[in-house]
Amino acid sequence: MKRPVVQGCCLWISGYVLAIYTEIAWLTWMTSALLLAALLVIYALRLPGRQPLGALLLVLIAYGYYQGNDQRNITALPLAQQGQVGEAGSEVTLLGRFASPVTIDGDRASFTLEAESVRFPEGTAFPLRGESVQVSLRLMEQAQQTVASGWRRGDALTLTGTLRSPSPARNFGGFDYRRYLRLHHTHWLLSAKGVDQAQVQPAAAHFSVVQLLRWNDELRAALSRRMDVIFPASQAGFMKSMLIGLTDDLDPDRFQQFSELGLTHILAISGLNIAVFLGVCIWVLRRFQVTKETYLLICMCLLPFYVLVTGASPSIVRAGLMSMIALYAARRGGMKEVLHILALAAWSMLVWDPYFLLDVSFQLSFLVTLGLILGVQRVTILISPWMTSSTLKNTLAITLVSQSVSFPVSIYYFNQFSLLSWLANAVLVPVISMIVFPAGLVALALGLVYIPLGQRIGQLITWLNQAIFWITDQLQQIPHLTMIWPSPSMAWICFYYGFLVIIYLLWHRSYLSSKDEIPIQLEVDLKGSAQRMPIKLSLFLAIAGFLILLWMGYSPNRFQRTGLVQFIDVGQGDAILIRTPYGRHILIDGGGTLTFRKAGDEWKIRKDPFEVGQKLLVPLLKKRGIQSLVLLVLTHEDADHSGGLQAVIEQIPVKQFLFNGTFKESSAMTTFFSTLVQKKVPLLPAQVEDWIPIDPVTKLQVIYPLETNSTTVEIVKEQNARSVVFLLEMQGTRWLFTGDMEKESEAAVLEYLRDPRNSPSTASVT
């Protein structure tokens, strides 16, 4: 009861969680308003039992508020027209205004449209009342990039294209784009070709929220251009992400590297940026002899603009709100309880948009902040007997707390954890936060005034960044230290945090007992009789239970003896994942993204194009907790079967690779085989006489190609006729996999199998 705001926020979140997982139809905005009125009356009259009753009412109010918002999150398009559009799409003309900056990447321009109305070909029109529509405009000529880059937020737009519903997840556990857009209040996609399909009318210049956002877009673009001058091309994207939250130019490979090492929070604008910004502002204002009340007020007014300039992600909004509340409290000499400030910030954001609760950035930001507030000082005390350096103790405590608190959320969304994450964070985060980030701000500020001066400081930062990148490169190359975790259940996550609390309490009691501040025995009531258990034994059992929980979470299906064959939707091409009854995995082909480029089309190349292996296949494998592949089969080397496998072999250990024994000349296949050789993966040319044992109840038999030479690799351009064809027998059930086998190949296989001499061999492949 000493922290009513914190308790209220926890109850409010509980109501949201119940609303997400259950449905009570009568709880809506109206019932929430009535329950809120009842709550106010109960507390105004000081009725007995008001505290538990008030807690229950607050949960129900939050439930109704979330459900009311969710029920109103629907499209304004009538049902008949929704069926007409569907996923196939319908040609329409949209009228509206740009609701976001235009992002240009190669031959694509994308933006959000605030649609006022939609007109169908037959002439019928329907109002959309400002509904958001995600637009993808294909640019037909390079000159159209310049035209599209001149469009600004707030400009009126009439655009003709194909309107369609976003696709749901096409694979179990896959990314649900429809749900993602709905959580951002968007229900439709519009695709169009060429800027000639768009009629744009620039917005009139007058002060408004839209005009303020336009200025903010222009400021961010100007800062981005200046950073391109201050920092070299290899560093600019990294610094933009860190300083102003622009990730468009960030190297995808560098982001993947930081993600695998658990360092992506460095690239996100958060509380660190706010702290440095406020520190600089207060230092400057003090030098001008500004009074405390005045500079606190000025900083409060500047913070919203800084949040906008840095992109207004949930993490920076959280830090900005907390800082504004803290500055206001400091100015008025009022509330200084950090937990209250955190709860007020969370409550404000969740009332503004209940879907924030489902945002990974929101979850990680608040969880880690809460953990640091509650845990760092306590953990520092507990580890003090083993360390004397206060710097080392604080660094270790911060790393231990932040890693422990964020771990379940990280593996739930990203399905990986590096055993070097704690080391990378302990070593690199202080350097980046204390040197690189502040120096980057100074370089940017000076570069705005005098470019050569900013470039000199930028060069110093570049040298330090190169050292940081070298360290991350070396850490990433250490094998077998990145663990792949399946997404855990909510029950597992609750048990995880419960064990953390129990371990801390027992560790704390053990620490106090070593100081002779409490009895050495811990009272444990078991079946009504008082028994005594040593604290250290209790702590040992809690840690053992925690380790068992981690073991179960890492491989929850280890004792399941059911085989599973999954045909993964990768668009063009095939990808088949097999789980044997003993938990071993085989992947057959990997799909691929086909691209057709002519000479002179280099401008169409995108910085981060969709690649089926990186964007779809690998995330699905990790989501399923595939820690290794006992066998990777490439039936043939056409791009729609092999293209997605490069990302697979880079991120998931492969024990053996089976292919048709040929080579199709291309840069992609050269890179693919080079990576296999570098990783020392055994290459198995397919041979008909071989059985490949997978586990005690699973085996694989190649039945085509009939003629192979294991000593040489033949170069073959047309690969379909050389597809690997094989039988998989699992628990008595047989499966035939044929790749892109052709008619002639089928005839050859049938003729071969008719010969009684060609009975299956029992030889095994090592």
From TrEMBL:
UniProt keywords, alphabetically: Cell membrane, Membrane, Transmembrane, Transmembrane helix
Family matches, as Pfam families: Competence, DUF4131, Lactamase_B
Main location: membrane
GO CC terms: plasma membrane
Domain spans labelled ComEC/Rec2-related protein: 242-509
Membrane topology: Multi-pass membrane protein
Keyword Transmembrane: yes
Gene3D superfamilies linked: Ribonuclease Z/Hydroxyacylglutathione hydrolase-like (3.60.15.10)
Transmembrane segments: 229-246, 266-285, 294-309, 338-358, 364-383, 395-414, 426-453, 490-507, 537-554
Ranges where the DUF4131 domain occurs: 27-197
SUPFAM superfamilies: Metallo-hydrolase/oxidoreductase
Intracellular or extracellular location(s): Cell membrane
Alphabetized InterPro entries for the sequence: ComA-like_MBL (IPR035681), ComEC_N (IPR004477), Competence_DNA_uptake (IPR052159), DUF4131 (IPR025405), Metallo-B-lactamas (IPR001279), RibonucZ/Hydroxyglut_hydro (IPR036866)
Keyword Nucleotide-binding: no
Residue intervals of the Metallo-beta-lactamase domain: 569-757
Catalyzed reactions: 3',5'-cyclic CMP + H2O = CMP + H(+); 3',5'-cyclic UMP + H2O = UMP + H(+)
Role, per record: Counteracts the endogenous Pycsar antiviral defense system. Phosphodiesterase that enables metal-dependent hydrolysis of host cyclic nucleotide Pycsar defense signals such as cCMP and cUMP.
Designated name of the protein: DNA internalization-related competence protein ComEC/Rec2
